[in-house]
Specification:
alpha/beta; 19 helices; 610 residues; Glutamine Phosphoribosylpyrophosphate, subunit 1, domain 1; GATase_2_dom; Rossmann fold; binds 2-deoxy-2-amino glucitol-6-phosphate; globular; 6-stranded antiparallel beta sheet; 35% helix
Length: 610
């Protein structure tokens, strides 16, 4: 996803901007650029990695105490220098960087071209900077005035930062649907699309809300609405530290974040488990606890791994809290005509809290009167702020594009929610205590699995030839299989398909031969015998099988080609453990193929466009 960094202060702006871009690299991009306002407005852009931009900057006189920078993930127009941001007006006096999509850019572009503006790119963004230039023609108009008027004519989404040669010391920012965070330092101000870019300078941040804009300068910041009404906002302190968002000696962020999972589980549960009462104490739901008691149906929305975590939660909540649950792809829910009553709660699951489809789904649910809850990792993110209440997953910054610790924390939050809703309803004290007791064991069980990484690497090596994979599981292990397949797909680009094991005979078995291996999740649980039959059916067709089962179950070694073992735990918590071998199998498969697991091709960490 595109990244924005901006600075105004007393230090040289260029190194601050370039370091900020490097901290946004994990979000995925195809080109980058930087604008500095010094004696004049200077802009340098390049296709490819930040290093290419660095090379282009060598020897350039980019001296100034104010500037903006951008990493672009192409939506309109191919990755090229001409399409890279910042974009400028006709005379090169205004520079603008933009995240989001301007849906009416063609209409704006036609009007501006007929007014004599010359366009140089294929992007939607360029229409905005020419519109600002056009509006500045009116005497006495400031950059802030022109930005305010311009964004009011935009349909779509934007997070922008704009500078102007004639107004040195002023950075104007605005947001609608694409995050903008302001960093407040000592006599200096930062702006970014993601707090990771500026966390090394300050942890005092202000998140702009939709329809807000701000003018940053050496005299401080002024936040206002698009009607130019002042908005008072005090900085809040980010919990994260710059170190937490670094690799700390691991080869990849993904490996670091997988290794953090035991501690993440402790953090997710910290202060929330009341083992004595077999209950979960969720401060974020305190204000809606009575309303939650009356809920008679849950709809859960999410994308990707968040969606699969929600599917695990569905089994938990129905089995142990007795609440009907529907899990919906956010990208579909937002276009359906969902039946929502005053006793429906809609839960949004999102690591970034900025996923466009999930945000749109929540807004749709709110419009229909549902109680909206969030299971979000990024504190202060849009979904966290727009839902009525919620539970932060406390996984810490997740930099690797593939969701690992965030997914584990999301599943764990669903277990806590199951206790919360269940103990409000029919769940007994003894059941609640049993679940709570087993939750407390999870960190050490995950630690024991992480220590087997070389075993998972060896298996990944044995299947390095495979270009296709079928991942299967039943009940709690069906979504676990879907999530495992997503990991292999998005990291190694192998065509891995997740399937409910009961569906194998309804089609997928036609795929099976010696060149099409299967990963079968078959812990010793309530459906083990049925899934064991799947293994036998695959082997009868010469298909190779990697089976993941429970320690002590020796019969699988006679049936499968390779067997991985999990410690015993409650059936509802198996997906937490199951994720570890599946994450590491996918990670090693990617590395063995020579790919960068932190930045898989075509993917972005947070999909803030439809
Ligand atoms: C999962 O590994 C992917 N990175 C992706 O599917 C991700 O889970 C999805 O885009 C949802 O992101 P969110 O949790 O930030 O909303």
């Amino acid at each position: 996803m595109c990244g924005i960094v901006g600075y105004v202060g007393k230090k040289a702006a260029l190194p601050i901007l370039m370091n900020g871009l490097r901290r946004l690299e994990y979000r995925g991009y195809d080109s980058a650029g930087v604008a500095i306002v010094g004696e004049s407005l200077r802009i340098v852009r390049s296709v490819g990695k930040i290093q290419s931009l660095d090379d282009r900057l060598f020897g350039e006189k980019m001296i100034g105490f104010m500037g903006i920078a951008h990493t672009r993930w192409a939506t309109h127009g191919v990755p090229s220098e001409a399409n890279a941001h910042p974009h400028t007006d006709c005379r090169g006096n205004i520079a603008l960087v933009h995240n989001g999509i301007i849906e009416n850019y063609r209409e704006l572009k036609e009007q501006l071209e007929s007014a004599g503006h010359a366009f140089r790119s294929e992007t939607d963004t360029e229409a905005l900077v020419h519109l600002i230039e056009h509006l500045l023609k009116y005497p006495g108009t400031t950059l802030a005035d022109a930005v305010r008027s311009a964004v009011r004519r935009v349909r779509g989404t934007y997070g922008i930062a704009v500078v102007r040669a004639e107004e040195p010391g002023r950075v104007v920012v605005a947001r609608l649907g694409s995050p903008i965070v302001i960093g407040v330092g000592g006599g200096e101000l930062f702006v970014a699309s993601d707090a990771n870019a500026i966390i090394g300078h300050t942890r005092r941040v202000i998140f702009l809300d939709d329809g807000e804009m701000a003018v940053l300068g050496l005299d401080g910041y002024q936040i206002s609405s698009l009607d130019n009404l002042p908005i008072a906002k005090e900085p809040e302190d980010l919990e994260w530290t710059a170190e937490a968002a670094q690799k700390n000696g691991y080869p990849h962020f993904m490996m670091k974040e997988m290794s953090e999972q035991p501690e993440v589980l402790r953090n997710t549960m910290r202060g929330r488990l009341n083992a004595k009462n077999g209950n979960a104490v969720l401060g974020g739901l305190r204000d809606v606890a009575d309303q939650a008691r009356e809920i008679d149906r849950l709809i859960v929305v999410g994308c990707g791994s968040a969606y699969y975590a929600a599917q695990v939660g569905e089994y938990m909540l129905e089995e142990y809290a007795g609440i009907p649950v529907e899990v919906e792809l956010a990208s579909e829910f937002r276009y359906r005509k969902p039946i929502i009553t005053s006793r429906t709660a809609v839960i949004a699951v999102s690591q970034s809290g900025e996923t466009a489809d999930t945000l749109a789904a929540i807004r749709e649910a709110k419009m229909k009167g549902a109680l909206t809850l969030g299971i979000v990792n990024a504190v202060g993110s849009t979904i966290a702020r727009e839902t009525d209440a919620g539970v932060y997953s406390h996984a810490g910054p997740e930099i690797g594009v593939a969701s690992t610790k965030a997914y584990l924390s999301q599943v764990t939050v669903f277990a806590l929610l199951t206790l919360f809703f269940g103990r409000q309803r029919q769940m007994s004290l003894s059941t609640g205590k049993r679940i709570a007791k087993e939750l407390v064991r999870l960190p050490e069980l995950v630690t024991s699995l992480l220590e087997r990484t070389n075993e998972y690497r060896a298996v990944a090596q044995r299947y390095a030839w495979a270009e296709d994979f079928l991942y299967m599981g039943r009940k709690y292990c069906a979504p676990a299989a879907f999530e495992g397949a997503l990991k292999l797909k998005e990291l190694s680009y192998v065509h891995a398909e997740g399937y409910a094991a009961g569906e194998m005979k309804h089609g997928p078995i036609a795929l099976i031969d010696e060149g099409f291996p299967s990963m079968v999740l078959c812990p010793v649980d309530s459906v083990y015998e049925k899934t064991k039959s799947n293994v036998e059916e695959i082997r009868a067709r010469r298909g190779k099988v990697i089976a993941i089962t429970t320690e002590g179950n020796n019969e699988m070694s006679r049936l499968a080609d390779d067997v991985l073992y999990l410690p015993k735990t409650l059936e509802m918590l198996v997906p937490v453990l199951m994720a570890v071998p599946l994450q590491l199998f996918a990670y090693h498969a990617a590395v063995l193929r020579g790919f960068d697991p932190d930045m898989p091709r075509n993917l972005a960490k947070s999909v803030t466009v439809e």
